[in-house]
Write a sequence for this structure.
């Protein structure tokens, strides 16, 4: 009987593991602070492509991997809009990217992204990472997951990775992204360069 139970447990575990996206088990580490930010060209909700290296008029970008359906992402939508409103004129604009598998999560489909951007009056580009290659290159794991970039001569450098603030639950104590950008604007390196992103796991495609 014990042998049977062990065999059954092994079979169930095999079935569970086989149902997981194979890419989720073998994701690249992504970028680290100080690295050159991977370039990308992604479709915006306005129907146009946004190319990272073409963003030559900004001092930096607040790249947020987010989506429609995740309750954490929904909770942070107004804060992301507020970040763009506060820092766009200072040269640090928000760029949001939806990395989820839209087959697994139809609510994150491109058409739904357009609706969401209109409903919430997003003031920033909302891009779809249809291949998920950008999320993998950056090492995004959750929604929301933020990468603050500063523009160099010919590329962008990663300055901060992690959460927007410390209030995924509860009241805001420390505003990680705002602190990092304020320090960059002051000509200083951010004191806090990495925090743990808190949110929903990215829904990876099955190979």
């Amino acid at each position: 009987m014990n042998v049977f139970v062990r065999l059954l447990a092994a079979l169930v575990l095999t079935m569970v593991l086989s149902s997981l996206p194979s890419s989720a088990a073998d994701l690249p580490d992504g970028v680290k602070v100080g690295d050159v930010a991977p370039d990308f060209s992604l479709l915006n909700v306005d129907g146009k492509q946004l190319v990272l290296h073409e963003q030559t008029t900004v001092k930096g970008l607040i790249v947020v991997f987010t989506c429609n359906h995740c309750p954490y992402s929904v909770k942070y939508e107004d804060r992301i809009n507020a970040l763009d409103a506060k820092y766009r004129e200072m040269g640090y604009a928000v760029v949001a990217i939806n990395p989820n598998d839209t087959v697994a999560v139809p609510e994150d489909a491109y058409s739904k992204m357009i609706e969401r951007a209109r409903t919430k009056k997003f003031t920033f580009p909302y891009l779809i990472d249809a291949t998920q290659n950008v999320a993998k290159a950056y090492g995004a794991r959750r929604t929301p997951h933020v990468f603050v970039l500063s523009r160099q001569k010919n590329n962008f450098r990663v300055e901060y990775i992690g959460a927007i603030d410390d209030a995924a639950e509860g009241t805001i104590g420390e505003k990680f992204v705002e602190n990092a950008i304020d320090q960059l604007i002051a000509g200083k390196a951010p004191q806090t360069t990495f925090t743990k992103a808190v949110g929903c796991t990215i829904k990876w495609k099955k190979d």
